[in-house]
TrEMBL record:
Reactions that this protein is recorded to catalyse: 2 superoxide + 2 H(+) = H2O2 + O2
Protein name as catalogued: Superoxide dismutase
Recorded GO CC terms: mitochondrion
Signal peptide per UniProt: none
Manganese/iron superoxide dismutase C-terminal domain residues: 127-228
Functional description taken from the UniProt entry: Destroys radicals which are normally produced within the cells and which are toxic to biological systems.
Cofactor needs: Mn(2+)
Binding site residues for Mn(2+): 61, 109, 195, 199
Similarity annotation: Belongs to the iron/manganese superoxide dismutase family.
Listed PANTHER family: SUPEROXIDE DISMUTASE 2, SUPEROXIDE DISMUTASE [MN], MITOCHONDRIAL
EC annotation from Swiss-Prot or TrEMBL: 1.15.1.1
Keyword field: Antioxidant, Manganese, Metal-binding, Oxidoreductase
PROSITE patterns in the record: SOD_MN
Length: 232
């Protein structure tokens, strides 16, 4: 099997067999029923993030794009199981790109929805407590972190994500980007992800993606980010 398949299959299959996900892990609050991935419910209405993210974008992003990743993940896992049952590990390994893409898309988006909250509720503002101290320690200030994140997002060629991560070995925070739907893996724990795919902003911001990168900070749910930071 390929290295990608060896890394991805155990995590996804283990979650499927458990029937539920650990909320603080990279798999976020991803939900599964009878061994299949399912689209998680949002804890807010589609229009709740306006005017920063339109209700139409949220509806399409969640119910169409994320659902596509869910369907693709289930199909990839079924294909791998069938191939392994026949002892055809070459065929199983050939599904690795689909597993990585759709599995990563499902995991990334499940965490992304939790990263957001209406500005009238828990969205926006600044982090507090130990998370704030860690950001100031490793980035200098929250404003510097925001600027570096927006610069990283603007520098993504094509589609991808920018992530605030915690190194599980050193405890330090860092900023990384991932292409397409590649998930954050290894010693890095994803705390906050911002989607730079066009489907996340184009209906509202068109080609002005820098405006979207500025606007999304108004609906970042720092409480969920802090929770992941404290549990990782």
């Amino acid at each position: 099997m390929s290295a990608t398949l060896l890394r991805t299959v155990p995590a996804l299959r283990g979650a499927l067999r458990a029937g539920a996900m650990k909320p603080a892990a990279a798999l976020a609050s991803t939900s599964f029923i009878r061994g299949k991935a399912t689209l998680p419910d949002l804890p807010y209405d589609y229009a709740a993030l306006e005017p920063y993210i339109s209700g139409k974008i949220m509806e399409l992003h969640h119910s169409k794009h994320h659902q596509t990743y869910v369907n693709g993940l289930n199909s990839a896992l079924e294909s791998i199981e069938t191939a392994e049952g026949k002892g055809d590990f070459t065929q199983a390994a050939s599904v690795a790109p689909l597993l990585n893409f759709h599995g990563g898309g499902h995991l990334n988006h499940s965490l992304f929805w939790e990263n957001l909250a209406p500005a009238s509720r828990d969205g926006g503002g600044e982090p507090a407590g130990e998370l704030k101290k860690a950001i100031e320690r490793d980035f200098g200030s929250l404003e510097t972190f925001r600027k570096k994140t927006n610069t990283a997002l603007a520098g993504i060629q094509g589609s991808g994500w920018a992530w605030l991560v915690k190194d599980k070995q050193s405890g330090t925070l860092g900023l990384v980007t991932r292409a397409n739907q590649d998930p954050v893996t290894g010693t890095l724990e994803p705390l906050l992800g911002i989607d730079a795919w066009e489907h996340a902003y184009y209906l509202q911001y068109e080609n002005r993606k820098a405006e979207y990168f500025d606007a999304i900070w108004n609906v970042i749910n720092w409480k969920t980010v802090a929770s992941r930071f404290e549990k990782s």
